[in-house]
Every structure is written in structure tokens, then in C-alpha cells.
Fold each of these.
Amino acid sequence: MNIAANPVVEADQTVYLKDYQKPSYLVDSIDLDIQVYDNKTDVHAKLVMQRQTEGDLVLLGRDLELQSIRVNGTELSKDEYHLDAEQLRIANAPDQAIVETHVVIHPESNTQLEGLYLAGDDLFVTQNEPEGFRKITFYPDRPDVLSVFTTRVEADKKLPVLLANGNLMEAGEAGAERHYAVWQDPTKKPSYLFACVIGDLAVLKDSYVTSEGRNVALEIYAEEKDIPKCHIAMEALKHSMRWDEEHYGRPYDLDNYMIVATSAFNMGAMENKGLNIFNTSCVLADEEYTTDAAIMRVQSVIAHEYFHNWTGNRITCRDWFQLCLKEGLTVFRDQSFSEDLQSAAVQRIDDVAVLKAHQFPEDSGPLSHPPRPDHFVEINNFYTATVYEKGAEINRMMATLLGKEKFRAGTDEYFKRYDGQAVTVEDWVAALTAGSGVDLSEFLIWYNQPGTPKLEAKGEYDAAAQTYTLSFKQSLKAHAKYPNLKAVPIPVALALFDAETGEQLTLNSEVLVENDVKDGVYLFDQDAASITFTDVAAQPVASLLRNFSAPVNLEFNYSDEDLAFLLQHETNGFNQWQAAQALLENIFLKDHNAQIYLDAVSSPKLLPQLVNTDPLLASRLLDVPSEGYLASRIDADYNPLAIQEKREALLNAVAQACKGFWKNIYQELNAPAEFSQAMGVRALKNIALSMMVRQGDESAFDLAYEKFKTTGNMSERLGALKVLVWNDAPQAEKALIDFYLRFKDEALSMDQWFMIQAAHPKANAETIAYLTSHPDYDLGVPNRIRSVSGGLNANPVNTWSFGVQHFIGLAQYLDEKNPIVGSRLLQALSRWYTLAEPQRSAVKAELEALKPQVKSKNVSETLNSMLSV
Ligand code: TRP
Ligand code: ZN
């Protein structure tokens, strides 16, 4: 029966981890022949298959026009196989089966950006993770089937670049107008890592010699005009290659490494073996066209995809439930790489800020799931902050506990055991345990449970005994789909400070973990426990969860004075920032008086010194949590306007408290040559400009406009433009027009132009209508959609008024055209249930009304979860 024709009997589409079964057939090799034409693409595939277990021979395929199928040379008639919308099934197939298929596909009309698709006028690219390969040909498209791929690509000569994974074996003409190339990838890989690229692109070339002496040709493909913007990515690539050799002992294994940039891409980038495909936003980096933050992101994503070569490609996932095996570990690795690129403290600040702004809210709401879920409907919905960022934190906790040497022994063991295999999270933890000699098995609990643990701590000083005791309790919010929650192992990095001198005390306690990391680390893995320090001469100030040693919500009875003390005396920038954030949360969420905070930031001992020695850290210490983050900390009766007003009032008070400080910074600080220092100065000066406006200093607009016109640096130009536009300065309109004319052919810069206008605090439905009907707005390009939607969502007051229609409309429009992106955008509304009435019921009604209209698994799974609170 054709399921699609009968929507009434909707089968339960949930897939369960517990149902995992080995594939009945493996594929020794696959020969692919992909012939691209303007109006169709022919795909011929030859699979050499071998039976592994009992069962039918199953090939997955979606939207494929089957022309013919042969098994061991004999064409099958229609009654010799079963074909439905998802798979082709052959009963009683021989144990050795050579399966040859010919299908026709339509990349030219593929709007989902999955499988093979047209990504602009002269470019065809693939995106096969997680389940895109089945849209190219019939195949056991699952990560535990590894095979050797040989690929022939053929196209018109007006598309000169023909790429696929591995080594170029052969190239030549295919008739007068057409040409072809044959590539072979010697390493066995799952189909999600297959890639090919057919198009008209320019290339930047370089090379690298590995620690083993292998000479690797490096190539970055992009549009001709963008080649000058590829140098930062190229340097980052070489740096990543060296870093993985030095820190993990992992050299590269092929003779070439290619990166292709496209502006039509659903996510950031993709680690296809030897042929990464990147969103232009994660490759192109240039001070004139992209911001400092974007430059940092390019370097980290280049590293991320490169690091996947070992953590993801050489060792891959057994099934998609194990996604965080490769993503959590690779994010941890790219974060560590970035900590070596700039100030480690600032990198940690930025990573924790992302975790708290995205993962914590996700984990406290209706979309909460474990880093390794045990069921899903649509795997694309699980490329989440929880899988990536919380997954990275689990690895960081184990690394913190082990210290550098033992962690390295553990990863060495992992690569030794599992190279060339498709494995599970259990395998990873087992290898770390065996290699390090430390039993880490209790960390598996973290992978299997949802929710951010609450860590309650209390400190008590006993003057007579000269002891200080910290007692801990942990708890998790109940979750309907994951009962039986257990206590998790929480490494608590901590320090005690002398309250008088500000000196850090030596910790005397027997229950601290011994590792080669200097910090005192206490491993708390019960429901409740305590630790006592001896020889403590006076009531100390404790600092807990240093460097954010575990992804938990800490509730410690710090006084505001303690936090202000830590802001001044903590020995590293991350811990100073953490203290400032805790103080700010007290002000916003517990109505504490702001004066202690204002005194601390305006103290001559803090910022005035730091702005010269570490301007980047100084800029971060001025962070005030976003309205969106504050909202995520409120579980009921949330009033967006009230939060906005409180936050504005505090920022105005900070502006006033520092009097002449801001203008001084703006006029006297100059960006030095060193990039991260310069980045810090630019960040500080942008803050200073907006503080001057808050002080009512009219000269700020002239200074901003002057900067806007004369700078060649995008962070400065955008900082100035924001100040003008968001404050409706007289120069705002001129500046927007000037920006448009200057950058209209630069998509990434134009994304910023759209974003700034959508993020205007007083944007309204007309603003969004103007932007989304602009000739340069394009619903086929996810980056452009995200720039407007992301800008709008920067102001929750707007998200929860006219934004509701915007996001619901997009989810509906993209439901079939691009369900991956549609499902993600809808998540902007996932905390609807926290709103105060009557807004809560109004948004709920709109979400309910969307429900009967959606067709994709992606959007409907998200919507069902969102409404299940
Ligand atoms: N594996 C990619 C990464 O994290 C993620 C990715 C890229 C992806 N494109 C995708 C996931 C499309 C789902 C769909 O590096
Ligand atoms: Zn990844």
C-alpha cells in the first residue's frame, strides 16, 4: 500500500535506539556515475554487496526515478522487488550481489538543499549528512555501512570544476560539449561523507607537509571575486593540521584536502572526506567585508571540519543516535584549538555564553533531549545545541578530571581500537577508561539524560575548628519521556580566597581529584555530599565551578559583595566574567540592588587598567545578559517588555556611572596590529559609542558617522551603523544607503545590512514586510532568511508580537521547500508557554492552527514537541 496516498492512517514514524539491528548486507565498493544536465541528472550505481546477516536486501531511496535495476547482471522485473517512497527491497537476494541501478534525479529543482542540488547559477553541490545520499541513488544509506567509493562526474564544459572525494584518477572529454573526471577515495566511508561538486569556481592553492612527511595539496574553491577572502581560512586549515598532530597525534591521511564554498547551505559546513563543503559564512573572512566575530568563527569551523577527519570520518557513528560521539568530541576539539588562537579565558567566555544562551533554554523546555537521544522522528531535528555543545561539555568534564596526560592516553586508545569502524558512545567512554586507567563509566549517565542539573551548594566556616565545609546537592527536573533520572558526576573546580588580602588559599582536603591540572577539582557524584577544608584561618570567599567545570545551574549563597570581590580578585578572566554574570542575574531575576555592580565596573582598579592590558577581556566583562537569555531563566509569567525596561535601565545606569570613561576610551584607544588585541579595542569602542548615546552625548552620532564613512573594517563600520540605525540618528538613512551601494554584491555583508534593520528595537511588522519584500531578500538562501529572522529575534518584545506571525509563516512556507530550516526557525517560539497571559494563549492558538497544515516530519515533530508542554 502506498502510505503517502493514505494520510489518515499515519504510521508511528518514531525510530528507537533499542531497535538497532546490523545491516543485512555490507557494500565492499560502489562505482557511481553522475551525469549532470540542465533539466535532469542521470545516476548509475554499481554496488558490490555481501550478506552479513539474515534478511532482505534493502536499499534506501527517496524522490528517485528508477529506470532499471540489475542483480548479478540480470535485470529485475517489477515483481522481483518491492518499491515504496522510502526503500527498495529485494527478498531472497543472493549472498553475493552486484546491484546496478540507473535513476534520474532533479538537482535543478531541489530546494531542500539535501542530496545533490543546484546552489546558484553555475554550481551543483551535495549535502548528504545525515540522510541525503538516498536522494542521489539507492543505497543502504546508514553510517554503519562503509565502502570504497569510485565516482565519475560528467557535465557540460561550461561547468569546468568536477570534484569528488579522494584522488583524481582520470579526466577527459565526453563528446564535444562535455567532459568528465573520475575520483577514487581509498578510505572506506559511510555514504553521508560522500560529496561531489560540479561548477564554475576559482581556486586558492597551498600545500602542507604532515608530520609523517606526506605532501598534501590544499585547495579552497570559491567564486573568483571571493578568492582574496580565503586566505584566513587557508591559514586556519594549516594551523589545524599542525594542531591535531601536536595535541592528538593525528596526521592527515590523503594527498589532497579540498574546501568548497557555497552561499546556499542549510548549516555551517560539512566534513565530507577530503572534500569539505562550507557555507560561505564559514569560509570567507576579510576585515573589509566580515566582522571580527565572523573571522573567529571561520577559523573555528575550518578547524571543526578538519578535526572531523579523525573524530567522525576515520572513526564514525554506528547509528544517528550516536551523533554526539562525533559532534561533541569535535566541538570540544575546536574549542580547545580556539583557546590556543586567542585569550583562552575569552574563548571560554564565548563558548559558555553560547551554551547558556542556546543549550540551557533548549534543555529546560519542550525540546529537551539527552545528548544521545533514545528515539526520534526526524534525525535532522537533532543537530542541536544539546548534541553539539552539551556533548562538548561532557568531553571537557572527562578531560578536566583526567588532566592532559591521561586524557591523551585515553584518546590514543580510542584511535587505536576503533580506526576504520562505526562505534558508539559506550565505545568512546570504554576506550578513555582503558587508556587513562580511570573508570569514567558513570559519565555515560550524562549522555542518556535530558535537563540541566541544578547544583545547590552551601559554605560554612567553623572558626573554632578552622575548617570550611562546602555541602552540595543535585537535582533534575522530571521529564515525561525520560523517567528514572540519576545523579550525574559533576567535577566542581573550586578555589578559596582570603577575604582580606584577596590571595588564593592552598586547599587542604583529601577528597580533591588528583590530576595534572592545577585547579582544585572535587568530583561530586551523589545526590548530596560535602567536602571539608582544614587549616582555614578566617572566613574565606569561595569560587565554585571555575572555568565552568560542569554544565549545571549553580545556586550558591554568594552575597553580592562576594561576587563583586571575585570580579576583582579571581585569577582568571573567565571566573571574573562568571562572577559578573551571577551578580547581574541577581539584579535582573532577584531584584537585587544594582549599586554593588555599578561600583565594581566603575572601580578604577578594574576596567581602566584592563582596557590597556587585555581590551578583549575588558569588553566581555561589560557583557550584560541578553533579553533572550534572561527570558530563558524565567519559567512562568514572562513579560518581555518588563525585562526590556529593566535591562535598558541598567545599561543607562552603567553609562552614567562611568561618566567620562566612555568618551576617553573612544578617543584614546587605538587598535594595535595584533588581531585579538585589535578586536578587543574595536569591541570596546563600539560599546563606548553606544554608552555615549545613552549619556545623551549628541557628538556620538557624528563620531559614529565619521567612523562609518572612513573605516575599512567591518566590525567598526557595523558598530557605527548600529548606533546610528538603532537610535534613529539623523545620519541613519544616509548610512544605510551608502552601505547598500558599497556592499550590494557582497552577500555576507548584505546579510548584516538586513540583520541590523530587522534588529532595530522599534522594528515592526512594516519593517519586516519591507525587508522580506526587498529585491535582495531570497527565501531560497537560508543565510538571508536567518539574517532577518535572527535580527528580529534579537528583541524578544518583537518576537512575541509581530514575530509570531513571521516565524509561523516561515515554518509553513518552508515546510515542504526546506523543512530542515523551517523546523529550526519555528524553534524561536518554543518558550511560548512561559509567557504571561493573555499572550500565552494567543501564541498557543496560532501554533495549534499551524498543526493541521504541516506535512514534513521535521516541522511536525518540532511542533508536536513544542505543544506537548
Ligand atoms: N556534520 C556537520 C558539522 O557539524 C553538520 C551539518 C552540515 C549538517 N550540514 C548539515 C547536519 C546538514 C544536518 C544537515 O560539521
Ligand atoms: Zn561537526
Note: Residues 285 and 830 are 33 Å apart (CA to CA).
Amino acid sequence: MRHLIAPALVVVAAAACAAAAARPAPAPAAAPILPEAKDSSSYARPAEARVTHVSLDLTADFAARRLSGTATLDLSAAPDAREIVLDTKGLAVRSVADERGRPLPFAFGADDPALGAPLAVRLNGARRLRIAYQSAADAEALQWLAPEQTAGKRRPFLFSQGQPILNRSWIPTQDSPGIRQTWDARVVVPEPLTAVMSGARLTPRGEKAGPGRRAFRFRMDKPVAPYLIALAVGDLAFRELGPRTGVYAEPATIAAAAAELVDTEKMVAAAERLYGPYRWGRYDMIVLPPAFPYGGMENPTLTFLTPTFIAGDRSLVGLVAHELSHSWSGNLVTNAVWADSWLNEGVTSYFENRIMEALYGPGRAAQEAALSWADLESAFAELGRDSPGTRLHDPSGADSSGIVYDKGATFLRTIERTVGRARFDSWLRSYFDRHAFQPMTSERFLADLRSTLVGGDRDLERKLQLDRWVFEPGLPDNAARPDPNAFARVDSALAAFRGGGTASKVPYAGWTTAERLRFLNGLPRDLPQPRLAELDRALGLTGRNAETLFAWLQLALANRYEPAVPAAERFLLSQGRTKFVAPIFKTLMAEGDWANRSHGASTPRRARPITA
Ligand code: BES
Ligand code: ZN
């Protein structure tokens, strides 16, 4: 049962569209709410009453897979505001009280499978609420891992993932990216585990909190979107990388993680030289157990990373440049609604490539930009050029093909090439400064561009096609194309192989990871077994690099190339990154039960635990 106490008063919590009649609340200086940005993914009605600060005091129960404790919310509300509406999902609320401990009436509205349930609290004049609650054992933001699912295999692990609308399953607050909040937290965990969060870590070693338990305290004193509150608990080691950078990981992973991340301090410096000060204090990272479903997540001061970026040669650190860039585009200037996620992901993908260029040179950056262009072409091929899903501003918010990343980056590259790099860079830098710690919409982005960069230049306005880029499907004809020579040597090797040349002539060993990916993804999708065997032998395709391994497995499995099955099985059992796992299962499904039969397995194969 979710509602532990029958509410004394039934407040009808209207759904997300009822704010119209409300009197505007005095806008807090630090974090305005944009009136034009109505968030259809939140029940909150911030014009009436809004959360400005969240203070958590939570205990992690690994056996019950629950966080329980209190959330104390500071509010800003119109003088006559009667209630505040929060977002919740599966939370069991025991009580709500004001600052003096007087109970406040509360009620849940109808539960929606995606949005959860609104929690309306009668304010009775209160401007601070204390909510006693616990999360559900299947809270969507929380992944509780058994010891076997970690790299070390001895201790359990917990991590949270808030983006886009999952944090309401462990924090009762207004879960909308346009409603920024400061926060602090105290988290009690069983010894010898360490808790880390996406804010200043006030007690690195923790404090004794009763028998067998330690408490860790954190603080974020800058207003952030609530999806950026994140927690990880596990057996963690820490390695310093530079004066303000470091990495956490399980002891089994820490050395490889630190070696892969040696350039992080330089990346932060390069990012600052490009687009202004890093405003979050430290930039640390945590390499999570391999079950982490994403490549990375830009949690402020503490990027979360998959271990699958560890290739041994730093060839996949574009991921780190990406998450670091979100410290500007995403965490500093934030999409007010998820329909504008291109403002986070597209601007970040452009920024990422600029960091890669600054650190590793224009050749590598040009190759990575060309791969992104190829991804964009495949997305168009898959969705159709006229499909509404190819718009940057996408009201469905359901980008499944990376459009907001690749088309967004191409949009910025197009503006850069049209106005010149120096002029574009100074605009983008000033954009981050002028909108720091504020929400952003497509309309505001374009208005800002027009008033500060285009400045009434009619010819430039016509050339840029700004509205087409943001609101129309497809690709405007002014799109900045990638360097046609970025992959010159790969493209000629591909042509030779297609023309019947042998795989042993392909100089694969001397290529960069981007070149190898270009080659593997450029091979004909239909290949006869002997040709696959030739490639397999000549190129040594089951090495340590997850990206090239994935590209090879996709090709091999689609062609039912049996010798690739054991490697595919190891790969699927060793990591949980959706980008790799989902397409491979799709390919296997499309091929029927072939992969199982090829093992001659008449009895079911015993599942092995996930390993690093
Ligand atoms: N913010 C995203 C991750 C995300 C997106 C989480 C949408 C939930 C919903 C993160 O910055 C990201 O884009 N990660 C990419 C890596 C990047 C190099 C393209 C990933 O996880 O693959
Ligand atoms: Zn991103």
C-alpha cells in the first residue's frame, strides 16, 4: 500500500495544466520560472508555490532496497497560496508537517504510469515542509546491485539516475528542469560502504552513525534542476587526477579508470578557455559497475561513467569531454522542458567536439564529427527525412535516434561556419554567462541569437535559416558538412575490400578507433561467411574496445556468423549499457533462435552473474 495514512482532507490535485488562474508568485532572484515553458512532464504549478531548497536525511536499506527518512522543502509561494503540488512516484508518505511539527493535510492524485502521482499539500501558511517517506523497492531512479553485479563481487552497490523524470521516485519535490533548487543531504549507509553525491562532499570519510553505520553529508549551494541530484553508494576508492579533478571507482577498477582519465584536468582547462569559467568547484567522476545503463551522466561535480569507455588507450574519452561540457550546456543553462533537450545535448555535442579538437588536434575532432554526421544520416534513413521526430524542438521529447545530439551539433557548426569561429565563440561564451543558472527554451535561444549575434543583419538572418533548423524536420540546405577527407585512407581501404580485395591488406592495426569504426560500419551489411572469417582473422576483432567490438558484433550476428557468438555472449553478460545491449538483442531476435541453436544447447544454459 502506498498511502500509509488516509489524508484528513481530500485535495483535488489537478493535472499538469491548471495554472492559468494563479496569481504570479514573487520570482526569486536566482532562478526564474519561464512563463512560456509549461512542463507537461510535471504536476507542479510553480506560479502558485515552488520548492527552492531540498534537504534530505535518508538511510539506505540494502536488504529492503529502500531509501527512507525525511525531505525538508523550503518554499516560495504567493501570500494566498493554499497548497503546493509535488511530483512523486511510488513514494510511501508517512507524514507531512510544517516547521513547528504541526501536521499538514496532504493527498495523492491519480497515478500515471509515466508521471507518477501528484502530491498536494495544504500549506496553512507554511513555507517549510517536512515529509517523512520511503521509496518503493522498485523505484525507477534507483538501481540496487547485488555484490555479484559489481566489479569487486563482495559488496552491494546503489546508484541513482534522475534524467529525465525519474528522481520523483526517491525525492518528493517539483521534478521539472525549469524549477531549480539548491539542496543538501545526509545519507546513512552500512559500513564499510561510501556514499557520494552530485554536490560538495562535506564528510569524505563519513561520520559514525550508530552500530555498523556511517553518515555522509553533501551540499549544493547553486540552484540546479532536480534531475541533477544523484547518489551512489558502494565500495569506493578515490584517485586524485589534478588540483580539482579526481575519480571514484570500485577498488578493482580504480587503476584502469585513473589511467584512462589522465587528461581530465586539461579538459577542464580547455573547456574554460573556450566558453568561460567552470563554476562548480570540483570536477570528479565515478566509474560505476558495468550495469550502468548509460555511457555517462553529467551529475554536477560528479559525472557518472560506464566502465565500457575504458579502452586502455584513451580513445573513448570523448565521453568525458561530453559530460564535462554539460557543466555549461545542461547544468548551467538548462532546457526548461524536455521537448528542448537539444539545448542540453546538441550544444553539448558541439562543445564536446571543440574540447577534443583543443586537446587532440583537428584531425581527431574532424573524424569524430564525421562519425556524428554518419549517425545523423542513418537516423534520417531510419525515421524518414520528413518525420516530425527529426525536429530539434520535439514536443514528443522521445529522441530515440540521437537526432538532438547530431543535428543539434550540426546546427551550431553551421552557425559557426557562417559567422566565423571567433565571432561564434564569443557569442556562445556570452550566452553561457548571460543565462547562467537559468532555464532556456528554443524561443529564448533564437531570440538571444538574433539580438546578440545576428543583430538585424537581414542577409545573415536569411542565410542561417534559424527557424527551419529548430522547428522543422529534416536538414536545411546550409548544413555544415564534415571534412570529406577525414577518413580518406579508410574510404579507400573500404573500396578495395568491396572490390574483392583481401582483408589482410586492410591496415586496420595502424588506425585510430574512429577510423576502425568508420571501416566496420562502412562494410556491406550482407557478407558471406568466408569474408567474415577473413575479417575476423585479419583484424583481431574481439579486443578490449567496446565500441569496435559492438560494431563488429552487429555485423557478424546480422550475418549469422557463428564464431562471433561466444564473444557476443561475454559482451552481453559483462555490461548493461543500453546503447550496446538493446541493438544486439534486436539483431538476435531478428535472426530467430539461431544463436542458441548454434551452441547445440538442448538444455537451457545456466545464467551467469554479470561480471566486469
Ligand atoms: N545526459 C545524457 C544521458 C541521458 C540522456 C540520460 C537522456 C537520460 C536521458 C548524457 O550526457 C549522454 O548524452 N550520454 C551519452 C554519451 C554521449 C557521449 C553521447 C551516453 O550515455 O551514451
Ligand atoms: Zn549528454
Note: The chain is about 30% helix and 20% strand.
